[in-house]
Amino acid sequence: MSHRFGGALVVLVIISLFVRPQLVAAHEVCFPSEKTSYCLSDPFSDYWESNGGLPVFGYPITAPASEVNADTGQTYNTQWVERTRLEDHPENAGTPYCVLLGLLGKERLGQLGRDPASEPREAGAKDGCLWFDQTGHNVCNIQAGLGFKAYWESHGLKIAGLDKYSQSLQLFGLPLTEPKTETNANGDTVLTQWFERARFEWHPGNPDQFKVLLGLLGTEVRGGSGPPPAPPAGEDPCQGIAAPPTGAEITPVCMQAGDAFTTVGAGFRVAEPVGIYVSGPDGGVFVPAVIAGDASATPEGQYHLKAALAAFSLPGDYVLTLEGVQSGQRVTIPFRILPGAPTGIDESLLPPSINGEADPLSGPRGTVVTFSASGFNPLEIVSVYGTYPDNSVDGAPFQVRATQLGDVGQNVRFTLDETYQIGVYATTFEGVDSGRKAIMYHRATP
What we know:
With 446 residues, the chain is mainly beta. It folds into four domains: 28-102, no CATH class; 124-223, no CATH class; 249-338, Sandwich (Immunoglobulin-like), CATH 2.60.40.1930; 356-445, Neocarzinostatin-like (Immunoglobulin-like, Sandwich), CATH 2.60.40.230. It contains seven helices and 31 strands. The chain has helices at 2-18, 44-50, 53-57, 104-111, 148-154, 164-172, 217-223; strands at 28-29, 40-41, 65-68, 75-81, 84-88, 99-101, 130-132, 137-139, 141-143, 146-147, 180-183, 189-194, 199-202, 212-214, 249-251, 254-256, 260-265, 274-279, 285-286, 289-293, 303-308, 316-324, 330-338, 356-359, 362-364, 368-373, 381-387, 393-401, 408-415, 422-431, 437-445.
């Protein structure tokens, strides 16, 4: 009996030598194939899931690969996602800093020829805002409880031992600019603030939880390019631009980003709507910031436009396209953006509103714009009038009454129908007794 038992034991030992242990699959996070063909694996998958997931990081756009970090010169296992770059730092193994984020806000500004160090410091801390003395910028909300401050404070890396402020700082870094209206890579003109590791965008038409969105810096930095090299000394930087078709022109044909230009195209049907878009040197297509434009083609079949590209636009060759909605007539007009700041103010930006606000700041014709203002006498009668993109002025057929606090709440709304011009409008509220004014700027887009 003991002999047979011993034989069985030997057999079991021999079997155990040839049965391999079952491998535990690495933690992978994969996505629908129509979104991306890439998966996230350790350590990036845990990091992605623990610190915000899709809204904070976006989908992966590469597989993990060894890449050299330009700041340190060291090679790290790296994976790019839509909004940032994830780096595996083995020297930090066993700590919460095994995965580090790239400084993509700073990198993208550099690609666009913008030096964060040259951004002017703000005068000082503002009430209700976060003040960062290191860079001289505030982070504020845009409306009650919503905006960049609320988003910054409510998101952060989940690192034990760090307070909420430090967790947010680890995720986004310091602010590099003050908020400005800019046009992003998708062509959306939105209030924008840049941080070391992120770009905050304010989308007022979205539901509250999505009014602040993060820019796709991973996609932009990985696919973006910097300003082209300067031409040799003595060479005309504006030479070689193709001529527009007969009856079309743009003035100037060569300019800095942020400078206003005027253009005209011909051959459209009388009174037909005309679409507008620009193709850039990086292959992007977007709508420029319109300053003024015809509501539709003139009786002569022409369409006139005044517009500007955002001051951070890449230098290079662009094509402006005017396209008749009914006729399909397409007029393409080449122009060039040179390196450097605007020759004057950045015409792509809306002037800052005074004693009031418009919501949204821009939108296509048909958008309902709501206005609110303050600073009037209690219960004062307030007149309302608008200044159009062509500088004509039209008074509203009504007046409103201020509250006991001197406010005009969000009870004044306008809808710009298809007969209105595109471009920048100024809506003015003026107290009949006090003469005090509130001026709110907004943009009607094609």
